[in-house]
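Now for a typical sample entry:
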Amino acid sequence: MCFILLLACFWPLRLLRFYAGFIVLYMAWIAVFLYAALNAQLTRNPVAGVRPSRWWLAATIPVTLLTLSLLGRGITRASGFRAFNVPSISMEPTIQRGDGLVADMWYYRSRLPARSDVVVFVHDGIFFTKRVIAVGGDTIEGKNDLVYLNGNLIEEGYVEHRESGNPSGYEWMRTFGPKTIPSDNFFVMGDNRDVSLDSRSPDVGLIDRSAIVGKMLYVYGTDRAGMRIR
């Protein structure tokens, strides 16, 4: 019964949408599996009337931990969520290199990405994380590190600039457009503007709706754990 209730918390309740739900569910997941393993090992055999060897207990715990890790990952994905580790600095300071993230992979099934959403998309078979800056119908332009949306300068408190200029050949990072975004396409950029490979680059360009597979929810596993991505 406890196991069924735990599965219901993953789906249909989908409590992994919340960081508190993430912590409670995985602590409960570990507790249920460890209890089951320990209980099985420490209970007397009803026929022989003796407990199994303690060496079996030592062997069972690692197997149990591996099983719950693999099964937990499968159930997480089956309920529409996925965990990612970030190897780059392109979204700093919002997302630091080495951060762990949880994304809702079902979020855009019934809605379109909105401006300022931090999305997961696939480009050349690789998962990327960037922020949506412009959506279908918008006109976007960059002038010397300033971004104009529909003719208006946008305030971007999340942006970081680490360089005073860009190397030759990378002028597209500072100045681009104007470009009008077609329907079901999105212009995405990294928050760390001086190092991010994004829609400003001819090698990436606009992101089609079909390539966007999830929305980032929150950071876990760092000293900023529980921070929601905005």
Notes: Helices lie at 2-10, 19-42, 54-78. The chain is about 25% helix and 25% strand. The mean pLDDT is 87.
